[in-house]
Write a structure and sequence with these properties.
There is one protein chain. By secondary structure, the chain is mostly beta strands. It has one helix spanning about 130-140, and strands at about 5, 15, 30, 35-40, 55, 60-65, 75-80, 85, 100, 105-110, 120, 130, 145-150, 155, 170, 190-195. It has one helix and 16 strands. The protein has a nine-stranded mixed beta sheet with strand order 1-3-5-7-9-11-13-16-15, with no helix packed on it. It has a five-stranded parallel beta sheet with strand order 2-4-6-8-10, with no helix packed on it. Strands 12-14 form a two-stranded parallel ribbon. The radius of gyration is 18 Å and the shape is globular.
């Protein structure tokens, strides 16, 4: 239980997510990204209150993220290009969270709440359901947003000059496609990036 760092990323590691990880009470850093590990994130992970970095991107991890919402010291959560599904949990209890990356999964529901500490929110390439108002409510507590990726989501967007404070930029591939849920012009794929122009770009 005195184990603090787990660095097994970018290896040929395979198998299911071990249940014993929930017993590593001193664990602060978990790096298993770019491996073939599979299985679900166990509810017991919520007991790992000293976890600061969770990097499980580009794995075969599946299931939901409900256990993560109780990690008060968590600063960075990377679960991009995995097999997650369901609704994102409330991250209100993750009062130290700075970066959230769950791009390219099968998540369908926006989180009920986000902590004000977040600066990077990457949700793109998920079949998330919602609309502009849902995004507005979700982002309301966030005070230091620097990067926000909602590309290729199943969300109807109504873009205005006053939307999402002063950091909205929409780039479309041409003028013949539409933004939002209207039938006047054909749909298209595009990337929406929201940023604070007074801050440095995220890397």
């Amino acid at each position: 239980t005195g184990f603090e760092n787990l660095h097994l990323h970018s290896t040929g590691l395979s198998g299911t997510f071990p249940q014993s990880l929930g017993n590593l009470q001193q664990l602060s850093r978990m790096e298993l990204y770019e491996t073939k590990i599979s299985g679900t994130l166990l509810a017991s992970m919520g007991n790992l209150q000293k976890l600061v970095y969770v990097m499980l991107g580009r794995t075969q991890i599946s299931g939901t993220l409900m256990a993560v919402g109780r990690m008060t010291r968590l600063r960075e959560l990377q679960l991009q290009d995995a097999h997650l599904s369901g609704t994102l949990p409330s991250f209100r209890g993750c009062e130290s969270l700075v970066s959230l990356d769950v791009t390219h999964n099968s998540l369908t529901g926006l989180p009920a709440a986000l902590p004000p500490t977040l600066s990077h929110i990457l949700l793109g390439r998920n079949p998330l359901q919602g609309d502009t108002e849902d995004l507005r409510v979700m982002l309301a507590p966030v005070e230091q947003l620097q990067a926000f990726d909602v590309s290729l989501l199943n969300i109807g967007l109504s873009i205005g000059n006053d939307w999402a404070r002063d950091w909205t930029e929409v780039v479309l591939p041409d003028q013949r496609c539409r933004v939002g849920k209207t039938e006047e012009t054909p749909a298209c794929s595009f990337t929406l990036r929201l940023y604070d122009t007074s801050r440095q770009p995220a890397h």
